Amino acid sequence: MYRLDRRMKQKKLEIFLQQVPPHPTPIPHLEQYQTPASIAADILFTAFHFQDIKKCHLADYGCGTGIFATGAALLGAKKVCAIDIDTRALQIAQAFAQAHNLSITFIQSSIEDITKKCDTVIMNPPFGAQFSNRNTDRIFLLTALKNASVVYSLHLTKTRPFVKKLVQDLQGTITAEKDYPFPISHQFHFHTKKVVTYPVTLFRILNRNHKGQNKSH
């Protein structure tokens, strides 16, 4: 198995994650934009150095084709669960995991129906750009903070005040933030530019009222 540990370079993980296939037929209202490998690798190594991956039970919410789940498995998570509502995305993610002998459990489910507890959730929820997806980021955060000890969640930077208020209301604590430029390539009929880059922010959110499967934080 291609496995990484603390001694491995972040660049090596990024190169491997570049192999994770994108969704061949993304669905507009699900906002299925592939997280760039460089961003995914940085988020995963951030979580790794906070000791939120190795020997942890980890879930990738809205996993798409599984880039976060793949990285977590490589970085030594005890258990990895990848969850998405889209069966086609899960099929692609599962085929990739099997091809590389990665131990990942795949579950088809809407986010609000998830009740499985874990130590860590890593997710890139829909940004809410589509009208049908308004408040979806809220649903992701509500569910993640109900089920996990620590959450890594990526949001449009302009929604920072909303995220902070919601986290406070849910009795969570933001312990770290990191900004990234997030490029979205032309893939839907309503896109008018070849690439548009959005400022996004990663939030590490601690839920001190919850104990995960393997450890407390």
Mean pLDDT: 86
End-to-end gap: 29 Å
- Name the strands of the widest sheet in spatial order: 3-2-1-4-5-7-6
Tally of DSSP helical segments: 6
Largest sheet: 7 strands, mixed
* Helix-strand makeup class: alpha/beta
Alpha-carbon Rg, integer:
16 Å
Q: How would you sum up the global shape?
A: globular
Order of helices and strands: HHEHEHEEHEHEE
Q: Give the oligomer, counting copies of the same chain as homo and different chains as hetero.
A: single chain
- Approximately what portion of the residues adopt beta-strand conformation? 25-35%
How much helix is in the residues?
25-40%
How many distinct beta strands? Answer: 7
Task: Explain the layout of strands and helices.
Blueprint: H1 10-17, H2 37-49, E1 57-61, H3 67-74, E2 79-84, H4 87-99, E3 105-108, E4 118-123, H5 136-147, E5 148-156, H6 160-169, E6 173-185, E7 195-206
Short description:
By secondary structure, this protein is α/β, with parallel strands linked by helices. Helices cover 29% and strands 25% of the residues.
